[in-house]
Write a structure and sequence with these properties.
Structural class: mainly beta
Strand content: over 45%
Number of strands: 11
Radius of gyration: 13 Å
Largest sheet: 7 strands, mixed
Distance between the termini: 40 Å
Shape: globular
Length: about 120
């Protein structure tokens, strides 16, 4: 079992920045890829960014150039630096982990609200 705990969400004005963090515990050394998804009411959860243990990244087109994902493999922690935030970035952001045993884990979610 893997437990993911997010922090760093909140309210920010358009153009501002926030940094999300997600720390893994439990069977954390079984973790392979880590990342972030987001969801708004009535819509499917969508990928924001993923990062492999080796640091290879993948971003949604809507956040390229504004968001940066990183990870600390020693701490099994993933970060999402969000700059130039827009109102359409408002969502609940979920931390995600995929393990070498092909299991998916999700955090509880953290609200990010961008005011115009």
């Amino acid at each position: 079992q893997v437990l993911l705990v997010e922090s760093g969400g909140g309210l920010v004005q358009a153009g501002g920045s926030l940094r999300l963090s997600c720390a893994a515990s439990g069977s954390r050394f079984s973790i392979n890829d880590m990342g972030w998804y987001r969801q708004t009411p009535g819509k499917q959860r969508e990928l924001v960014a993923l990062i492999t243990p080796g640091g290879r990244t993948n971003y949604a087109d809507s956040v390229k150039g504004r968001f940066t994902i990183s990870r600390d493999n020693a701490k099994i922690t993933v970060y999402l630096q969000m700059n130039s935030l827009k109102p359409e970035d408002t969502a609940v952001y979920y931390c995600y982990a995929y393990t070498w045993t092909r299991q998916d884990y999700w955090g509880q979610g953290t609200q990010v609200t961008v005011s115009s």
